[in-house]
Write a structure and sequence with these properties.
Alpha-Beta Plaits, 4-stranded antiparallel sheet, alpha+beta
Length: about 100
Amino acid sequence: MLTVFIEYKLDTEKRSHALQLLTSMAERMEAMGAHQYRSMEGLDQPGLFVETFEVETVQVYEEIKANRLADQDFCDCISGGAAKLHVWAFRPAELG
């Protein structure tokens, strides 16, 4: 199981549209194979968002990443566009 984080800062002028798009994001992400989707906004940095969810395979992660980076309507709401939509996957650390 991989944990995925998506991080971006919304363009202030496009915040309303982005929030409207985010209302259906959980459903869209689950349809692509994400589990336990959450979207959070920074307390100390309003407009900074992090989405997090779990996926079962690297392939699902890569498909979701490609899909999100190609989502021009949403990326247009991000300060800096798709280049500033950061997507990272993490696996459990093997300690000891």
